[in-house]
Amino acid sequence: MEEVSADTIWEGWAARALAKVGAADFLSNLPQLCLPLPRAQEEPLADVATFDGPGPWDRTMVEVDVEVPKASATDGEPARRQMLIFSTNDYLNLSAHPAVRGASSKASLLFGMGPRGPALISGHTEYHRRLENALAELHKKEDCCVTATGFSANTAFLAALGGVATHNAASRRPAVQEKIAVFSDSLNHPATVEGLRMSEHMGQTLVYSYGHRNMENLDELLSKCPVEKKVVITDSVFSMEGDIAPMHDLVQLRKKHGFLFVVDEAHSTLLWGRNGGGIGEHFGIEDQIDVIVGAMSKSIGCVGGFVTGSKKWCDLVRLLAAVTVAKKEVWRRQEVWNRVREFTELTKYPAASPIICLVVGSEEATIRASKHMLERGFHITTITPPVVASDACRLRITLTAAHTLGDLRRLVAALSECVPGLDCAGDPIT
């Protein structure tokens, strides 16, 4: 079968949409704020320090004091006790890194706080542009924009996608054949689901859900769909399962059907790939992914989102320092994967990522398990309806570079007391 060039087709549709709304001329006239240049010693990104191993600041992100609810306190007042955190998404522990904190402090002292206004009016600065350039380079894309959150990155992109249907339509409202057919993995993040629901409600898209990681189902849906404009969107690492999308199979289907391939790299940016470029870099298929959506609240260790390949919103200068540090301190990625391997060896649980989802069963049983883990000194996220089915409630554990093998042994011992079917016999790790 002749390969379909999705790149050429979608570039044409996007160009026609931009021409229709005059976006090119509008965007070219937007000012970019030129903040006062700092002195050399004030430059936020000057002398970004990197280290060959963990420092005391790393441990502060996983070993904290928490307040015990009043009902559990002997004197009727909240009591404080030490707790190990296995619920953070800060996999590389960069939020506490001295270089990231230093850059953030310098930037706030120099330029103040807040974006000054929406990105398209007065909020975009050369520092935001430097961050966007760094993220675009990291993911091997031509351009990038930052947004306020990962959620807004998803919704902003999907709103723009719907705009392609609207501005390529013959009339004000797209006919069925003029809409965009979007095929979404059934376990994609709620941010994607909400964005798709919005565009479908606007009459711009037709949304199809395919079975989780089920390529035969996706191929069948794509083959039967008569709509020309097709998009496939998937999480790279699924946040409620911890497994990975079948990227090579998706690339083959892209070649067959010519769809726009969109990947949410929220849980894989800076964690997968030699340089932290995510799943695309890890599998060597960066050129086959058309659009990447991401969140900076995971491995980058702060707040914000981004979309590679479009122009949207702004975020804080300290994120650029986090990207710089993560690329240099490659040991952080290795430590995360060491913890994943060790957890698997300790429990026989086939972990594919730092996200470990242990199904307990009913909501009541899962809450009991969560309380048990708190009593044993571990903070773990509980996942209950409507996020998952009522009989598939689970404990969601996330592993980071700051956790130790000793932490895992204690964790596994406590889990074996409240998670049915978890095989924790023996300790093969030496």
TrEMBL record:
Reaction(s) catalysed by this chain's protein: L-serine + hexadecanoyl-CoA + H(+) = 3-oxosphinganine + CO2 + CoA
GO CC terms, sorted: endoplasmic reticulum membrane
Location of the Aminotransferase class I/classII large domain: 82-321, 332-415
Keyword annotations from UniProtKB, A to Z: Lipid metabolism, Pyridoxal phosphate, Sphingolipid metabolism, Transferase
One biological process term in Gene Ontology: biotin biosynthetic process
Major location (coarse): endoplasmic reticulum
Names of the cofactor(s): pyridoxal 5'-phosphate
Membrane topology: Single-pass membrane protein
Domain of life: Eukaryota
GO MF annotations in UniProt: pyridoxal phosphate binding; serine C-palmitoyltransferase activity
Keyword Transcription regulation: no
EC class (word): transferase
Family affiliation: Belongs to the class-II pyridoxal-phosphate-dependent aminotransferase family. BioF subfamily.
PANTHER family (UniProt xref): 8-AMINO-7-OXONONANOATE SYNTHASE, CLASS II AMINOTRANSFERASE/8-AMINO-7-OXONONANOATE SYNTHASE
Protein name, per record: serine C-palmitoyltransferase
